[in-house]
Amino acid sequence: MLYWVVKYTIWPLLRLIFRPWTQGMENVPAEGPVILAGNHLSFADHFFGAGFLPRKVISLGKAEYFTGRGIKGMVSRAFFSGVGTVPIDRSGGKASEAALRTGLRILKDNQVLGIYPEGTRSPDGRLYKGKTGVARLALESRAPVIPWAMVNTFEMMPPGHPIPKFGIRPGVRYGKPLDFSRYYGMEGDRLVLRAVTDEIMYALMELSGQEYVDKYAASAKVEMVRAARAASSTS
Q: How far apart are CA 64 and CA 22, in angstroms?
């Protein structure tokens, strides 16, 4: 219920202020399970990524968004519930398997699952290597995968900047469904999972126009922090 309240109150205001644009909405099925696999450039993606679609988009988010205390914790829970986020434990191992099962349950209910294969926001606007969880979801659920590309959200609201820049129009492109039926039944093969994931990331690269980096975004963030500390210690 909260999702639709947010949708029909905040979204019209965002459209009026930022004039977002979209392409390829006809590629998203009107019913049945769907995986929207997107790039992740900005906190603003939570607002603009699903706004145009008439269907509810459910995404998986870290459990910490829902466990905070006080007023800040309450606001965080309300916001992420309002944008359709389901809390998951992202600590790895059994937690990762539980997150996968949660995603499969969402798809089994014929809903739309939004997922960011990079696992975290891009630190510099480039597209980073995807994690293979999206491939397992695609092969086990056999749901169509729609590449879901955010455009200009990094420039409008880069990580670390809580206030968006006005005058930059964010956009969303929905690509044509990707067919992985040739891999059905092979979700236990790591090479297959990597091939499927890389195909999804290639489609996102073409849709978004981003430069691709063959490393994980989380690793890139660690390297950037280390480089910044080294630079400050020598200055």
A: 31
